[in-house]
C-alpha cells in the first residue's frame, strides 16, 4: 500500500519544502494561481508554494528503544487487519529513518504522503463535481478512507497536539514519534471511516463559499477546550467552495440553500484551524 523509492545510486533532488496540506487539494480555492489566506488576522494573497509548508517538515528521525517498544505494544493490541497494516508502516519507517541515503531520510516520508495523495486524487475530482455514487464500489471507498485518515492526522496542528501527559512512559521522545504517529493514527481513522463512517456530500447552493484551513479535515465534535473529554466523532472536510464531505455514523445527504449554514461550517473551520485559513476571496472570511 505504501511505497517509496530506495535506490541510492539515483541522484534525486531534495524536496526542501514539505506541505502539510496537500497543494492539489487547495487548488479549487485559487484564482490565477493565487489563494486568499488569513493568518494572525491579516489577509493576503499567496501562491500555493508558500503556504501550509515547512522546511523538511517530514524528515524522519531514528526511533529509540523506548519508542520502538511503545509502537510494538500498540501494534500487538490492535485488531488483526489494522495491526498488519501498521506493522508494515512501522517496518517501512524504520527502513527509511535508518537509511544512509540522505534523500530517503529527508524526503522519504514526504514521498509516502505523495503516494497517499494519489489514492485520493481521482476520488476528489469526482466529489468536486457532485458525484458520490462511485463510492458504492468498495475499492474507491477504501482508497478515499485511507486518504482522508492521513489528511486528518498529517498536519502541523496534529503534531503540536501530541500530548506527553497521555503517555505513561515519560522516556518516550514525542519529537521522534511525531513523524510516524500520523500514519498510525491515520490508518486507524481511515479504518473507522471505511467500516463505520457514512460519507455524505454537502452541496453548497448559496452565493457564499466554503472556506478551508491548515487543518482541513477535523472532528466537528472535538471540544475546543482541551480539558473536556472527546465523546463523539464526526469529520468535516471542505473540498471546494461548493462542496464538502461530512462523515458520521448516519448518512443524511444535504443540499445547503441558506447562507447561514455556510457561515456555520466556515466558523467551524476557523475554530479548528491552527495558523491559517484559506478562501476564494477575502469576503469569504467574514
Write the layout of secondary structure elements.
Elements: E1 17-19, H1 23-26, E2 30-31, E3 34-39, E4 42-46, E5 53-55, H2 65-76, H3 80-97, H4 102-127, H5 138-153, H6 156-160, H7 174-177, H8 181-195, E6 198-204, E7 212-213, E8 218-219, E9 235-238, E10 243-248, E11 254-256, H9 259-272, E12 276-279
Parallel strand pairs: 6-11
Antiparallel strand pairs: 1-5, 2-3, 3-4, 3-12, 6-10, 7-12, 8-9, 9-10
Helix pairs in contact: 2-3, 3-8, 4-5, 5-8
Key traits:
single chain; 286 residues; alpha+beta; 5-stranded mixed sheet; 9 helices; 40% helix; 16% strand; globular; DUF4238 domain-containing protein; DUF4238
Q: Structurally, how many domains make up the residues? A: 1
The number of distinct β-strands equals: 12
Pick out the low-confidence regions: 5-9
Number of helices: 9
State the end-to-end distance: 42 Å
Query: What is the CA-atom radius of gyration, in angstroms?
Result: 19 Å
Kindly report the average pLDDT value.
90
User: Which structural class best describes the helix and strand composition?
Assistant: alpha+beta
Order of helices and strands: EHEEEEHHHHHHHEEEEEEHE
How would a textbook summarize the main sheet? 5 strands, antiparallel
Overall geometry: globular
Helix content: 25-40%
Beta-strand portion reads: 15-25%
Pfam families: DUF4238
InterPro entries: DUF4238
Organism: Bernardetia litoralis (strain ATCC 23117 / DSM 6794 / NBRC 15988 / NCIMB 1366 / Fx l1 / Sio-4)
Protein name: DUF4238 domain-containing protein
